[in-house]
Amino acid sequence: MIVKFENEFLEVLSSSHGGELISIKGKKDNVEYLWTADSKYWGRHAPILFPIVGRVKDNKYRVEEKEFELGQHGFARDYEFDLLENKDNTIVYRLVSSEESLKKYPYKFQLDIEYKLYKNMLKVTYKVKNIDNEKIYFTIGAHPGFNCPLIKGEDFEDYYLEFNKNENARRELLDKESLLFTGESELVLDNTNILKLSKNLFIQDALIFENLNSNEVTLKSARNGKSISVNFEGFPYLGIWSKPNEAPLICIEPWVGHADPVDFNGDYREKPGVISLDVGKEFTCDYCIFINQD
């Protein structure tokens, strides 16, 4: 089911499949800002990553000696959500654990996604509630993709990312085959707040930063005044990703958690970055997308 909501600045489409955003269009300029999910490059728009971010080692993990299989970024993005609310520029979707999910992930949960428009800003809120009779463990993240370039006739290399503070930041390196953390890193931002985009940036997959000084990053062009800002305050990790195959997109991904280290022992409860949530408690995080149509 596709649901439209809007205000005087933006028109937004979302889908109950995965609870996913599928369009953010400016009303002033009629420009599509969200990635179009062209399967030639990447067939998704802005999936939620739950109950894992990235990969678990060999796509397997353990809880109390019982082994489970789970693919990259978990299953929520592929499940049908219930529409709880559609009013006052707000959409709320809900996914509740099921017999099918319990075969992949042994915890009972309730996951809500709220989308809310405030002028030129879209706020995305994730809320996880523990409805089990024991403590649950999970990681969660966002994976919104944006068209890059935004304007016909421009190139990917015309664009850059501007952080709101200067950074001396290293990317956490992934093993090229397993996409697990190697424990190694390399300097990407050397006392600067500007990251110029190029396809070479993504030959080793995503740029993954931990505990940046910044809480906001803006996609800008050297050739027009339009921009997309993502505020990721409260998220310990930020992923930046595109496919090195001339894909005209860039993903800006706030994460709570990350892929397994290459030498991880497989006990999910000991996974680095994992969240533990007591019975009846809720975990909430949110990020904001600002669209500048100038």
From TrEMBL:
InterPro entries: Aldose_1/G6P_1-epimerase (IPR008183), Gal_mutarotase_sf_dom (IPR011013), GH-type_carb-bd (IPR014718), LacX (IPR037481). Pfam families: Aldose_epim. It comes from the Bacteria. Coiled coil: none annotated. This is Aldose 1-epimerase family protein.
